[in-house]
Amino acid sequence: METRIYFEVELPPANEALLIAELEALEVVLSVTEVQSLQKIYGKRIIIMGGGAQVGQVALGAISEADRHNIRGEHISVDTIPLVGEQALAAAVRACNRLARVRALVLAGSLMGGDIEAAVKEVRAAGLLVISLNMAGSVPDASDLVVTDPVQAGVMAVMAVADTAKFTIDRLHRRVF
Amino acid sequence: METRIYFEVELPPANEALLIAELEALEVVLSVTEVQSLQKIYGKRIIIMGGGAQVGQVALGAISEADRHNIRGEHISVDTIPLVGEQALAAAVRACNRLARVRALVLAGSLMGGDIEAAVKEVRAAGLLVISLNMAGSVPDASDLVVTDPVQAGVMAVMAVADTAKFTIDRLHRRVF
Question: What angle do CA A132, A63, B98 make, to 5 degrees?
C-alpha cells in the first residue's frame, strides 16, 4: 500500500535540497515533491459556524472584506460549517485548535450556551480570537467581541486578522456593536 | 522545543488502546490525547474560489443547502477563498489535492482560463468534482458541470456530495444550467 504524507517545515534556505536528497535516499520513500505551502496559498483562516441563515450572512461580509485584502497581497480564507446542537457545536469549537492556520472564529446563531461557552473559553485561552453575534445564551459574554449585524461580524473578523488593515481589538473602547 | 503532531488513522477498534500505550511509552512523547477526527466533526469540504462578489453568492447557496443536510446527520463544510490572478488561482486549484476531505471545487468568477484550465484538468483527473460558473474563458469547458446562477451552483455542489441527497452528476442529461 502506498501512502502520501504532506508536511510543512521551516528550514534555513540552503538546507532544502539536502533534506529532499536525504528523503529520496530512504528506501521507504518512492518520490519527494516540493510544493508551495498551504500557508502561502490559502493563508489565514476565519472559521464561521452556527445556523445556516446566519453563517451565510457572516460569510458574505467576511468574503467581501477578504477579497479587498487579498487583492492587496493578503491571503485570507473564509471557512464555514452550518451546524446545530450544543454538543456538535462545542466539539467543532474545540477542534479549531487542531485546524491549521486558524486565526479567528465567528459564532453565528440565535442561542448558544452551556458546553459551547466552555469550549469558547478554552480556545480563547489557547489564543484564538472569538467573535459572537449578539444572541441569547452565555456565549456572547464569553467572547472577545459581540456584533449584532452578521455582515459586520464577518467584516470585523477579517479586519482583525488582516495585516493590510488597521484594526486592533485590544484598542477598542467597547466590545459590543 | 515541544511539537504537537495531529494525525488520523483507521485501526481495528481493539488496537486503539494498544497504539496509545505504545506511543506514550516512547521517550520522545510527552503526552497522547485521543480526539474525535476532523472527518467526523467538519466532514466533507466544498471549496469555492474566485472573485469575492461571486464567491459570496455561491457560498450563500452552499451554506443554506449544507444546513439542510447537516441537520439530517451529514457533515459538510463550505470553505472559500476570494482570489484574483491566473497564477494564484491555478496554484489554489492544484493545492486542493493536498487539502484533506475535499469533495468538490466551485470556480466562481467572470473570466478564467490558461493555467487555471490546466489545473482544473489535473484535479479532475485525480478524482475531484469541479463545478464552474458560466463565464468567459476556457475553464467552463474543462469542468464537470457549468451553472449560471451562483446560488444554484453552491446548492448543486452540496447536493452532489451529500449522502442525504439524491443527485448524481453522472446521470444528468445536460451539464450546462
Answer: 100
A42 closest CB neighbour out of B60, B63, B92? B92
**Cα A161 to Cα A12: distance, rounded to the nearest angstrom:** 27
**Alpha carbon distances (Å) from B6 to A6, A80, A103, A156, B2:** 12, 21, 18, 30, 13
More confident residue, A14 or B166: B166
**What's the one-letter identity of residue B125?**
A
Cα–Cα–Cα angle for A103, A151, B63, rounded to 5 degrees: 80
Has residue B72 got a pLDDT over 90? yes
Nearest to B102 by CA among B121, B77, B69: B77
Residues of B in contact with A67 (CB under 8 A): 51-53, 55, 82, 84
Q: Which one of A52, A88, A99 has the shortest CB-CB distance to B64?
A: A52
Cβ pair A155, A124 in contact under 8 A: no
Tell me the C-alpha distance between B122 and B99, whole Å: 15
Closest CA–CA distance from residue B173 to any residue of chain A (Å): 31
Q: How many residue pairs from chains A and B have C-beta atoms closer than 8 A?
A: 116
Over range A48-56, report the average pLDDT: 97
Residue-wise pLDDT tens digits, A111-162? 999 999 999 999 999 999 999 999 999 999 999 999 999 999 999 999 999 9
CA distances to A25, A35, B12, B33, B136 from B117, rounded to whole Å, are 35, 19, 42, 43, 12
Residue B11 grid coordinates: 485501526
Q: What is the pLDDT of residue A8?
A: 80
Q: Which residues of A touch B6 (CB under 8 A)?
A: 98
Q: Is A56 in Cβ contact with B60 (below 8 Å)?
A: yes
ipTM of the prediction: 0.89
pTM of the model: 0.90
User: In 3-state terms, what secondary structure has residue B47?
Assistant: strand
